[in-house]
Amino acid sequence: MADHDWLVDRFEAHRAHLRAVAYRMLGSQGEADDAVQEAWFRLNRSDTTDIENLGGWLTTVVSRVSLDMLRSRAARREEPAGGTLPDHLESTTSGSDPEQEAMLADTVGSALLVVLDTLSPAERLAFVLHDMFAVPFDEIGTIVGRSSNAAKQLASRARQKVQGKGPMSDADPARQREVVDAFLAASRSGDFDALVALLDPHIVLVADSAAVGMGSPEEVRGAAAVAGTFSGRALAAQAALIDGAVGAVWAVGGRPKVAWDFTISDGKVVHIDMLAADDSLDDLDLTILED
Fold first, then answer.
1. pLDDT tens digits, residue range 174-202?
2. Which residue, of 37, 90, 119, 214, is most buried by count of CB atoms within 10 Å of its CB?
3. Is 180 helix (H, G, I), strand (E, B) or coil?
């Protein structure tokens, strides 16, 4: 019982921080509380003897739980529960709960929450953890199943969107599917001009280390260069739902070998992450779409 009480005390010492992380990830106080509660369940079931940094361990767990919730929400295309900022976080009075005051002191405004809701789940996690909580990119990469460099790219894209300098992703899955289907058709037929027409002039393709090991360049910039990379290829690629957005995947025997995570804005592909590392693919919420 004494060990359990000690664990409860340690967890409670981190609760306000964990709620803050989950709230910024999810934009919903109720969902944030659910994520924190799930973190407690997992901690209570875990062997804590090898946990050197409990705060970091709990932050990672809450982040992963929140990421799963964001992916599920994106797949259903639903709005966050309680998407507006709760009244008690908009204002406070003398004598209010200390935990609520702590959240208020470091909270985000309603306008920023609206912008965060336009980010992909992985972009939102990378931006929140790095820019708001100074979590290193190598730790963020582990959570989202990508390299440290890819995590940095996610945060950079999210930061540009938050600052109004980057393109917002098309939210309509049907429109995303049209663009991806057209992209794959042009790629298979080697229609270079059609590919270029589907790509933003400043598109960036970023490949993880496993994809580089398979022969892909680490980074390709510009519509013509990216079109040249795909023209006449992607013969076995299929459209897929990746973390709630439409992308493409090459699968063998039903198991994904390479995934292309597309960012689509105004009917143009503006960014592609090429993922081939097993741990990255395993961490994706991925469903192959029927033709």
1. 888 999 999 999 999 999 999 999 999 99
2. 119
3. helix
